[in-house]
Automatic annotation (TrEMBL):
Family named by the database record: Belongs to the APS1/VSP family.
InterPro entries according to UniProt: Acid_phosphat_B-like, APS1/VSP, HAD-like_sf, HAD_sf
SUPFAM superfamilies associated with the record: HAD-like (SSF56784)
Gene3D superfamilies: HAD superfamily/HAD-like
Organism in which the protein naturally occurs: Liquidambar formosana
Name listed for the protein in its UniProt record: Acid phosphatase
Keywords assigned: Glycoprotein, Signal
UniProt KW S-adenosyl-L-methionine keyword: no
Record-linked Pfam families: Acid_phosphat_B
Polar residues: bias regions: 7-19
Length: 218
């Protein structure tokens, strides 16, 4: 398994067991400059480039449909920068109510490099799984937002159900990948902005981490 990491990210396993815990990271000015500047755009393009280069080496089984790529959604496919721009770029304590109100708007834009990669991965013949920490109650607005941002034709959107409540992100995502593999799928690639998107069990052959200094989910 290979990871594409970014400066400032720690490759160690998350240790905090709280579900979806988002830690205050401070230094909002620094994060604002990075997230709204050319460096973030460049870094996401670099990660997408590595991802596509690997994807092109995979021999897709003709007629099989079992060669899979797993994408996280928030800060991987969709950018929530408009939300964090008015919430300190991660320096404020996470507020679930304001976050839910933002999600309900279904207006998060695509990360350009990720949208391009997504379309190229689809064209190569991969089966695409979207694995997110969002809840089942947010399915409709999530699908609406993905379509609004330019994403389409994913094969399965996996969200947290009632039985997943209280499960740490790294455990929840591992369990869902294990279920996917149990159906006979081969997970070649995985893209996410959190180590909990990528580590654990049933990990992809190659995992690619996008930069996100604004928050950390264990």
């Amino acid at each position: 398994m290979v990871f594409t990491a970014t400066a400032g990210d720690s490759p160690s396993k998350p240790t905090t067991p709280d579900t979806g815990t988002r830690f205050r990271t401070g230094a909002s000015g620094l994060f604002r400059d990075y997230m709204t500047g050319d460096q973030y755009k460049s870094d996401t393009e670099v990660v997408a480039g590595y991802s596509l280069a690997f994807a092109k080496t995979v021999e897709i089984a003709a007629g099989d449909g079992k060669d899979a790529w797993v994408f996280d959604i928030d800060e991987t496919l969709l950018s929530n920068l408009p939300y964090y721009a008015v919430h300190g770029f991660g320096s404020e304590t996470f507020d679930e109510n304001s976050w839910d109100a933002w999600v309900d708007l279904a207006e998060a834009p695509a990360i350009p490099a990720s949208l391009k990669l997504y379309k190229e991965i689809k064209e190569l013949g991969f089966t695409i799984f979207l694995l997110t920490g969002r809840t089942e109650s947010e399915r409709n607005v999530t699908e609406k937002n993905l379509l609004f941002a330019g994403y389409s034709s994913w094969d399965r959107l996996i969200l947290r159900g009632p039985s997943d409540g209280g499960t740490p992100a790294i455990v929840y995502k591992s369990e869902k990948r294990m279920e996917v593999e149990a159906e006979g799928y081969r997970i070649h690639g995985s893209s996410g902005d959190q180590w909990s998107d990528l580590l654990g069990h049933a990990v992809a052959k190659r995992s690619f981490k996008l930069p996100n200094p604004m928050y950390y989910i264990a």
